[in-house]
Amino acid sequence: MDARRGMSLVELVVALLLLEIAGLAALTAALTADRLGRRAAVGSATDRERWERYRAAEVLPSCRGAAVPDSTVLRFAATEERDSLTALVRCGS
Q1: What pLDDT is stored for residue 79 in this prediction?
Q2: Burial (0-12, 13-18, 19+ Cβ within 10 Å), 87
Q3: Across residues 40-62, what is the average pLDDT?
Q4: CA distance 93 to 88
Q5: 86 vs 2, 69, 72, CA distance in Å?
Q6: In angstroms, rounded to a whole number, what is the distance separating the alpha carbons of residues 57 and 86?
Q7: H helices within the chain, ranges in order?
Q8: Any long-range contacts for 32-39 (C-beta under 8 Å, 24+ apart)?
Q9: How far apart are the C-alpha atoms of 54 and 80, rounded to whole Å?
Q10: What is the spatial distance between Cα 36 and Cα 45, in angstroms, rounded to a whole number?
Q11: What is the distance between the alpha carbons of residues 38 and 55, in angstroms, rounded to a whole number?
């Protein structure tokens, strides 16, 4: 009977250890998902701001009414989530 009790204690410790490992893995996954979600939201805001600046440059009267087709360089500075970007805005018809 003593041998059975000792084996039950070992099984209980192993089960507790496995439960702690599973909990740690779940917590790590949740924290990683939260961090990635926040970075994606900030990156999305940066993309939206860049698109609005590009669109504003594209619809400027001097760009839309250009007699000769031309390109204008539009540079975006690097942010924490995005690299620097250079875009060409095509003007004229």
Answers
A1: 86
A2: middle
A3: 90
A4: 15
A5: 76, 19, 10
A6: 13
A7: 2-58, 61-64
A8: 39/81
A9: 20
A10: 14
A11: 26
Please name the amino acid found at residue 48.
R
Query: pLDDT at position 2, please?
Result: 53
Scanning the structure block, which residue is given the tokens 């496995």?
Answer: 18
Which residue type, as a one-letter code, is found at position 40? Answer: A
- Report the distance separating Cα 53 and Cα 20, nearest Å: 50
CA–CA separation, 62 and 65 (whole Å): 5
| Single-letter residue type at 39 | R
pTM of the model: 0.58
Phi, psi of 66 (to 5 degrees): -65, 135
Averaged pLDDT for residues 5-22: 88
